[in-house]
Fold each of these.
Amino acid sequence: MLSRVKVSSLQFHIALGEIKTNLVKATAALGRVADQGAQLAVLPEMWSCGYDYKRLPELAMETPRVLDELCRISEESGMVIVGSLPEKERENVFNTAYVIDRGRVAGRYRKLHLFSFMGEDRFLSSGKESLVVTTRVGRLGVAICYDLRFPELFRKLTLEGAEIICLPAEWPKPRQDHWRTLLRARAIENQLFIAATNCCGVQGKLDFFGMSLLIEPRGDVLAEAGATDTELIAEFEFAQLQDYRAQIPCADDRRPEVYGKLP
Ligand SMILES: O=C(O)CCC(=O)C(=O)O
């Protein structure tokens, strides 16, 4: 097991429906962070095409090709890569975060909580399972964007041994405060690392503020992006997680007999 991991968050503007443009951008950014020694790279939510709702079934047909490219990069660079893409299965389209490790898909998480406020539930199907997966950079839990508002999911991932939670997002203005506060809260209450990647810039009618964050288990922000294309890098030291959990043993002090058992 590694004692520390170099983690990167690849924030960029997603061109709506333009898979080729976004793939070129992501590939270049992955190359740059690999050159800086990144071992885990987190891309935004639906980064290949954005929320081009009506064209999602057609755009999702390209996802296997995008995944092949990510697998190649993972194989050549040694990086673990996480990010969400539209996934088509029969008549359903899911918002699916893929974990790519050692040149193959090591785990797949279909977004559980669809953002009904913006009609995501009318165009996408929701997943039925959470995901914690062991990779070469440790045990990763995955959540996507709106999932951040559901602490139960994060607690479940924690109890299942997640050390780092990767959170691809497309979180628009004006809720910057919720984004930053909830990310720090999820890290603090579960005493783990969070690598959250938002997109930035205008996409259709929405304006994204960026503010991708790399956070350690005390809730301290190790790196934070502004509102433009940015590659964040920080080191996650697993001893910090162990020390903090030993110091304030929240997991041991839980009272599940009162408020219910998870998972
Ligand atoms: O919860 C929010 O405010 C934003 C969520 C969102 O944009 C999404 O899940 O796509």
Amino acid sequence: MSKAFGKPNRVVIALGGNALGNTPEEQIEKVRAAAPTLLKVIEQGNEIIITHGNGPQVGMIQNAFASAHKDNPEKIPAMDLPECGAMSQGYIGYHLQQAIGAAMHKEYKRWHVASVVTQIEVDPDDDAFKNPTKPIGAFMTKEEADAELVKHPDWNIVEDSGRGYRRVVASPQPKKIVEYESILNLLDNEFIVIACGGGGIPVVRDYSDKGTYKGVAAVIDKDMGGELLAEDCSADMLVLLTAVDHVAINFGKPDQQDLEDITVEQAREYVEAGQFGKGSMEPKVKAGIKFAESRPGRVCIIGSLDKAAEAMAGLSGTRIHA
Ligand SMILES: Nc1ncnc2c1ncn2[C@@H]1O[C@H](COP(=O)(O)OP(=O)(O)O)[C@@H](O)[C@H]1O
Ligand SMILES: NC(=O)OP(=O)(O)O
């Protein structure tokens, strides 16, 4: 499956949590539709590593436990965010494995795809713990949001890119992928690896017990987690797939302008001008800048999951390069 001559390009492909639908059925449909495109990228001589978001899913899992716990506190525990993040990696990784494995088996009679439950170390003193920005769970109307705030006075809820209101949680910067050696090992053995789902489960070192980590209540941005994964795996390209075809300036306004090709300097100017939704498009552009600057020749593409093949071929999406 790899190129006959020369080293294949390594591509990290990130699938946005909001682009994966809201139910198991929708998610299965979305990942099944994406699987042939992902395999085509391999046929073109690339190695792929997959990561995915979990914003809607991690919120859904935590809410489900919270309401079951309220109804039956003796038997059903409330569930903390890191455990919910781990469950979301299993839930989404499972569907991705099924979809990619089936497409791979049809073509190549092999099933070399595996998800790695991945922890990512964060700084316990990261300012993000004081300033929650990561939207999770379902979109709400203003009335629904107000009702949730009465039920959960400790929640923070914000408006998310004109799509409704969502709970936001802390989103610290990813520092170190704990399982990176397992990921590299699977890649060396020609597996398609699904890793750092939901940005990775955020953990901090537990210095009271050498070599151990403990989960923290946060959700890492998967664009930043995917960027770290791409650097750790020496990837050449980072592809961030979401629900819109392009990054835009004046997004949602009558003079919206879709961007096709921008330098890191232009991207940085647009970030400074506040052109991108916080916790939605801004982290993607910031991840793109970081990746494009990390080594000469590296490129980030941001485009839609539905047009993944076109984006990879340069016919859709926004390219960020040095
Ligand atoms: N300037 C912008 N250009 C394009 N999309 C934007 C912009 N600002 C905010 N958005 C919103 O960001 C969304 C992508 O972020 P998000 O839904 O968090 O991604 P994900 O698919 O990774 O879950 C788009 O669907 C769009 O609604
Ligand atoms: N963890 C994360 O970034 O999820 P989304 O892609 O759903 O925002």
